[in-house]
């Protein structure tokens, strides 16, 4: 071992790339600091290798490791990859390196995976979630032990369907546009319409970001037709905090319901205890490996950076289990190859040594199926491992806001069972259902917004949304969806035209509290218009609390 890598001898070798250290520079002075999460992930690989060898997964075969510190630098990660390539191209070492575990950041993983596949080296990532890595034509020998960022978009669509939200808005940070686009595509396929689709531009200037947030909140609240506003957000922590603050400053937070994805939403902002709106968060279900906690808190002589790690306020990193499963995926795949090629004879046979990286990947790694240290079944679906997700909701408990688990999404689908809403489940629809005896008049190409047109006296609404007259001796039934015998003589209503009831101003809707609230919102929007464009909009005469 040296200052930049760890090497453990074995009959076969698994490579590893982890961001253990990072450089922080101020002016011309740089210091090296330890990444706590990178340290845990490195130790997780050492833990897995040690446990596999102790349990003698393959008789007569020991697993070794060669692990590099990428120093949170993509250039260093590429240099590490060249070291692995050199191992693969030097005689005896060819049979020893069976694959690489890494890397963390998706852009780094993309570069490393492309380089390694040139030398037929399979790679399994424990943390890279970019949807771009799903492209098998570009990343031929790549897998990962977690889902892509795009998978929560599927969960979000299921949540919208669960609550019958048919008219929603989307806000996304520019860097997360691909994930947002996936949600929009999936929701439209499910019959859900998008009211507003707003982008937060990348910027480091706080005044510009704050102005952007106010403008976006204004657009969300003034988007025509929405009765209640559910916003599906794909945002950085900075942008989400900014939008929450803007909604509070503009006094419209109670009118918004946010559906977000964060790995630990309670760490995202300190404003939740004061926030008046509603938030649902989707996050990975924690899968801590209890046996690893004891291992990590001990001094590990195999790790040259062990003395630098901090155990104060220790909490297991979310990706530790992914690292362990990545190592076990390689090891169990190699065990299956050993069974197939060596007929269960102890040690490595010649057929195993001459197996190519492509053979190992397609015949064994992609088909591996094993039980992890938490008792969960692990296998690759496409090029990733599916995970359970926890659904949390911001609720007031004992007078304080906190996030409470209300359900989960697993291979069995979405389950929500303990949600609580301030005034009932929000309605996020463009138009309310029509009254009896009225048909929906849709705008061209719009399936979510309509106006209601009352049929004439003596007409009913058929299954094709048409007004149809009852014959002589018949009249519309009570539900106005068919005819029944009656004294109707075919006379028409006094009005020669159908009465149009615009759903946006639904006069059948008698809830005075709702009407009052809508007036308040309209007044707030008038003030917001004046604040944003004082030369165009006069100061409103109305007042709001």
UniProtKB/TrEMBL annotation:
Stored Gene3D superfamilies: 3.40.50.2300, GPCR, family 3, nine cysteines domain
Q: Where in the cell is it found?
A: Cell membrane
| Residues annotated as domain Receptor ligand binding region | 41-395
Tell me the InterPro entries matching this sequence: ANF_lig-bd_rcpt, GPCR_3, GPCR_3_9-Cys_dom, GPCR_3_9-Cys_sf, mGluR, Peripla_BP_I
A GO CC annotation recorded here is: plasma membrane
Molecular functions per Gene Ontology: G protein-coupled receptor activity
Keywords, sorted A to Z: Cell membrane, G-protein coupled receptor, Glycoprotein, Membrane, Receptor, Transducer, Transmembrane, Transmembrane helix
Stretches assigned to the GPCR family 3 nine cysteines domain: 425-476
The UniProt similarity line reads: Belongs to the G-protein coupled receptor 3 family.
- Write down what this protein is called: Metabotropic glutamate receptor 3-like protein
């Amino acid at each position: 071992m040296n200052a930049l890598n760890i090497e453990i001898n074995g009959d076969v070798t698994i490579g590893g790339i982890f961001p253990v250290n990072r450089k922080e520079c101020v002016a011309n002075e740089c210091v090296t600091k330890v990444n706590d999460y990178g340290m845990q992930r490195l130790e997780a690989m050492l833990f897995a290798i040690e446990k596999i060898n102790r349990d003698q997964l393959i008789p007569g075969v020991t697993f070794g490791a060669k692990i590099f510190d990428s120093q949170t630098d993509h250039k260093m990660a590429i240099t590490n990859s060249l070291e692995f390539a050199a191992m693969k191209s030097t005689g005896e070492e060819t049979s020893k390196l069976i694959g690489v575990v890494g890397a963390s950041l998706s852009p780094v993983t993309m570069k490393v995976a492309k380089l390694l596949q040139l030398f037929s080296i399979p790679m399994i990532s424990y943390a890279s979630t970019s949807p771009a890595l799903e492209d098998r034509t570009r990343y031929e020998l790549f897998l990962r032990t977690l889902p892509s960022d795009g998978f929560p978009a599927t969960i979000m669509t299921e949540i919208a369907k669960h609550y019958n939200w048919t008219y929603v808005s989307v806000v996304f940070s520019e860097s997360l546009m691909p994930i947002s686009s996936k949600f929009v595509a999936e929701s439209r396929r499910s019959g859900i319409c998008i009211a507003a689709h707003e982008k937060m531009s990348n910027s480091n200037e706080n005044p510009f970001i704050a102005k952007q947030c106010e403008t976006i909140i204004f657009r969300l609240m003034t988007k025509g037709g929405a009765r209640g506003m559910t916003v599906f957000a794909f945002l950085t922590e900075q942008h989400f905090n900014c939008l929450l603050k803007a909604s509070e400053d503009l006094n419209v937070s109670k009118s918004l319901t946010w559906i977000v994805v964060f790995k630990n939403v309670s760490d995202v902002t300190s404003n939740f205890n004061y926030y008046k709106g509603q938030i649902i968060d989707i996050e990975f279900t924690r899968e801590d490996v209890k046996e690893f906690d004891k291992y990590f808190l001990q001094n590990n002589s195999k790790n040259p950076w062990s003395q630098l790690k901090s155990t104060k306020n220790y909490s297991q990193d979310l990706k530790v289990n992914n690292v362990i499963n990545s190592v076990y995926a390689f090891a169990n795949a190699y065990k299956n190859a050993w069974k197939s090629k060596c007929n269960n004879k102890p040690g490595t046979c010649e057929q195993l040594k001459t197996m190519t990286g492509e053979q190992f990947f397609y015949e064994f790694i992609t088909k591996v199926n094993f039980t992890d240290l938490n008792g969960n079944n692990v296998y690759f679906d496409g090029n990733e491992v599916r995970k359970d997700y926890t659904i949390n909701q911001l609720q007031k408990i004992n007078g304080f806001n906190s996030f409470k688990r209300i359900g989960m999404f697993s291979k069995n689908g979405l389950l929500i069972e303990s949600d609580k809403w301030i005034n009932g489940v929000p309605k996020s629809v463009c138009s309310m259902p029509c009254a009896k005896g009225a048909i929906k008049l849709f705008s061209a190409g719009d399936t979510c917004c309509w106006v209601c047109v009352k049929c004439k006296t003596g007409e009913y609404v058929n299954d094709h949304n048409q007004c149809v007259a009852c014959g002589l001796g018949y009249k519309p039934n009570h539900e106005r969806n068919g005819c029944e015998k009656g004294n109707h003589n075919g006379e028409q209503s006094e009005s020669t035209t159908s009465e149009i009831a615009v759903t946006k101003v639904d006069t059948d809707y008698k809830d005075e509290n709702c009407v009052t609230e809508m007036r308040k919102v309209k007044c707030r929007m008038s003030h917001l218009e004046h604040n944003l464009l004082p030369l165009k909009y006069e100061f409103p005469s109305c007042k709001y609390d």
